[in-house]
Amino acid sequence: MSDVLTRRRQAGEAGTARPATGNLLHARGLTKRFGDILANDHVDLGLNKGEIHALLGENGAGKSTLVKMFYGALEPDGGEIIWQGKPVVIDNPASARALGIGMVFQHFSLFEALTVVENIALALPNPGNMKALAARITDVSEDYGLPLNPQDVVADLPVGIRQRIEIVRCLLQEPQLIIMDEPTSVLTPQEADRLFLTLQRLAGEGCAVLYISHRLEEVQRICHHATILRHGKVVSECDPSLETASSLASMMVGSEVIGVNHGAMAPEPGPVRLKLSGLSAPAATPFATRLNNIDLEVHTGEIIAIAGVAGNGQGELFDAISGEMRVDPGMVVLDGRACGNRDVTWRRRQNAAFVPEERLGHGAVPGLKLSSNIVLTRHGTGDGLVGTGFVSTARAAELEQKIKTTYDVRMSHDDPEARSLSGGNLQKFVVGRELDRNPGVLVVNQPTWGVDAGAAALIRQALIDLARSGSAVLVISQDLDEIFEIADRIAVISRGHLSVPEDARSMTRERVGILMAGGAEKNAGRA
Amino acid sequence: MRIELVKRKEHSRKMALLSPVIAVGLTLVAAAILFAASGTDPFLGLYKFFIEPLTDSWSVQEIIVKATPMVLIACGLAVCYLSNNWNIGAEGQFIFGALCGSFLPIVYPEFETSLTLPLMLVLGALGGAFWALIPAVLKTRFNANEILTSLMLVYVASLLLDYLVRGPWRDPGGYNFPESRLFSEAATLPLIGDGRMSIAAPVAVVVVIVLAIVLARTLKGFEIRVMGESPRAGAFAGFSAKRLTLFAFALAGGLAGLAGTMEVSGSLNQLLPTISPGYGFTAIIVAFLGRLNPVGILVAGFVLALSYIGGEAVQASMGVSDKIASVIQGLLLFFVLACDTLILYRIRLHSRRTTATGEVSRA
């Protein structure tokens, strides 16, 4: 722990050594609030010309909110943006582009039915002659090593090329700052290498790049400077090339000491309730992660938490345990019964319960009332919700009332549609819906993602109480504070490999960082 | 001044009921303009088109005769559309069902027992379901777009019908006219009333009631709604998207095939090269105008049937082309879909002045 603190102090020093104001863009005290959540809390950030600047942070740390304010897609609630020495109001993306700020989004905004040149023409203020534009596209794209054929139809192009279109579209407007939101998440390693060359070339010409990424190795490789956000605040600045991937990870997940008394809640290990053995599954899509020979035993009375940086196989692991993805029977065993090939209803009947990461659209149907959303996961579990094919709306309403009071779900009127609830309240509802069954095995992915502190505390307490009452709880989370607060044992997932769970009392954040940065794979190999 | 659509937090129940009414109102206005543009008195046109057919018992019965197949087909389509399965080929399922239902009375005309009619209806429903399962299987097995495959099968079915009535199934005593032999008494649906209305009409009402209960009260209905709105949540609930696609198509095809068989057995009494004035396509409008709700579909079917009879009426009495019926049906679908926007969005008028002052105060 002290190691991490030293490194943080060093990082802090590095931050102060560097001039706090950037000569291109300087954000001063930027603040943005969404309801109860402060997404950006007095953020200061300086960007210099010709700098590739990484913006790091966990999911929900406020990275996207910050860059959206730079791009004019969100309006700050407080603070100011200084562009080349002058305060500016960026009230829409067009005025951002006029200033020379371009953005490449994580999800592309292209018309599939149109050609490359047509798509680019649509985004330019005065595209001019299409032939001349096509020639310019060919020139610029070749020049920067991102060759494009202007006449190709977007629908026929792979994602890597589509991203090129967005980048070239940006370049044609001769920007001084390009913001990239997780650009490599959709690229193959070769395509990513090519992108890095382009970025380095741009930086050499004096253009600044603000680079959001979860992949710490690539940040170390190409970025000159990094700003780390946590819970909406700048917690640290550093030169990533002087850091290790694990020290960067520690900065992202934070290192405050939290007063949790593990000794008092350490349970006697009971029988195994959930067992994964040799769980492997190929990647279903080019961007999914394959699961590699995962072994895990969750005992009665304990909470095991799986830490990891987003996109390392957490979603795939959840789907394999819940039964949304089928695997070989013996790979998933619930209370001694092999069920890797059984569906989610069968597993629920085995007294297992699941809470997915995505509340709206996965854990709940946005347009259905809460009472109907109770039927969603409990129609097969003998809760009296379904008799001879008919759904009992009275019973659903009764359960809705009960969950609402027990888990303090706040709503503007009785039994609203799921979509109208705030994130925290909906999360209390989807967790409460499963806890209300008193399940023997509970698997929950990101239990408090984007949830305010009060609701998060309530949910964590409920998870601990469930485990202490004799259930086995598996928590998948990217929030290390949460993991250290509730877990009895901690494992780390990295590129679809799971490390051997270690006692939370002896586990350090630094060790988690090492495992996150790839150590989990070696560790899993040894076990 | 700028018009903005603002997303509502929840579906507006009021707008869900009001939107088809607004759509009908806008259609009436558009129809009046159409009549005026084609040089006729718009008020007389609207009266002859929409009101006069309701004033006499014969035309009311004709409206019911035309509404029956559309209501049956639309009920099945509603299940498809609610579950996100875009079956556009009900016309083909109607025709293929009618062919299968006509097999007995045409190929074995001497088979005249009390079993004849029930067997025909079963064959018709099975035939329609089979025809609908083709695009369903192509979708679940090969991910083929069901909009295209189901639509293309319409033309296959109607050309098959054309071939049969001109070739192997042509009436041997029919002076070479392209039509089949007339159905025997045992193969004819019992009539009710003094016109062409058969027991098909009460059958459609029973289907409406059963489907309304299934959709509103049962787990199957719940599954259909969940899968339509959020397939990922449906999978989390343990429902299978593939099985539901097969179910929805089979049900829609079965009902269309049943409607087709009842149409040839009850109204036409024989197979002709054309047995449907586009019921399978108009039923798409009926389904959406009826809010994909069986009871709503019953009302909407009546409105659309009125447009067929009204089209004939204005052609006969005012010399307006009966194509106007198709135009009005198209307008109605257009307005229904456009008005549905209001269910989840609110219209807000934005004056430029307030935004401008907002900028000043911030700067």
Number of helices of chain A: 18
Class of the largest domain in chain A, according to the CATH hierarchy? Answer: Alpha Beta
Please, how many domains of chain A? 3
Which structural class do the helices and strands of chain B define?
mainly alpha
Taking all residues together, what is the mean pLDDT of chain B? 90
- The count of strands of chain A amounts to 23
Using the CA coordinates, give the radius of gyration of chain A. Answer: 25 Å
The helical percent of chain B reads over 70%
* Uncertain stretches of 5 or more adjacent residues of chain B: 353-363
Largest beta sheet of chain B: what is the strand line-up?
1-2
Question: What's the N-to-C terminus distance of chain B?
Answer: 23 Å
What is the fourth-level CATH superfamily of the largest domain in chain A?
P-loop containing nucleotide triphosphate hydrolases
CATH topology (level 3) name of the largest domain in chain A: Rossmann fold
SSE ordering of chain B: EHHHHHHHHHHHHHHEH
Largest interface: A-B, 34 and 23 residues
Largest sheet of chain A: 7 strands, mixed
Notable features of this structure?
A: 527 residues; alpha/beta; Rossmann fold; 3 domains; seven-stranded mixed sheet; six-stranded mixed sheet; B: 363 residues; mainly alpha; two-stranded antiparallel sheet; 15 helices; 3% strand; disordered C terminus
Describe what this molecule looks like in 3D:
The complex is a heterodimer of chains A (527) and B (363). Chain A is of the alpha/beta class. Chain A starts with a helix and ends with a helix. Chain A has 18 helices and 23 strands. In chain A, the strands form five sheets. In chain A, strands 13, 16, 19, 20, 21, 22 and 23 form a seven-stranded mixed sheet that branches. Chain A has a six-stranded mixed sheet with strand order 6-7-8-3-9-10, with helices on both faces. In chain A, helix 4 (116-123) packs across helix 6, helix 9 (245-253) packs across helix 18 and helix 13 crosses helix 14. Chain B is mostly helical and 363 residues long. Chain B has a domain at 69-283. Chain B has 15 helices and two strands. Chain A binds chain B through residues 89, 91, 322-324, 343-345, 348, 354, 356, 358, 361-368, 372, 375-377, 379-380, 386, 389-391, 416-417, 419-420, and chain B through 9-11, 217-222, 225-226, 229-230, 232-233, 235-238, 240, 359, 362-363.
